[in-house]
Design a protein that fits this description.
The chain is mainly alpha-helical and about 70 residues long. It has one domain. About 65% of the residues lie in helices and about 0% in strands. The chain contains three helices and no strands. Helix 1 packs antiparallel against helix 2.
Length: about 70
């Protein structure tokens, strides 16, 4: 499956910043985080779409997996 335009743009922003500032991660780390977030979101969406509707208990267990362990981060 091809990347969405949003993922292509995020990867391009990250690659450009990483190329321009290889020794300054503060310039590109947020872009890397966005690339990883979009990839995870895409993967999770595929998983959710492939399974039947979860029960309320299953939904709560899945939500607990996505909640930050130590509070907001």
């Amino acid at each position: 499956m091809a990347l969405s335009p949003e993922r292509v743009r995020a990867r391009a922003r990250y690659a450009g910043k990483r190329r321009m500032y290889p020794d300054r991660p503060e310039m590109w780390v947020d872009h890397l985080r966005e690339v990883r977030y979009l990839a995870a979101e895409h993967y999770i969406r595929q998983l959710v779409d492939a399974f039947p509707t979860p029960t309320p208990e299953q939904r709560a267990r899945l939500a607990a997996l996505l909640a930050p362990a130590g509070g907001d981060k």
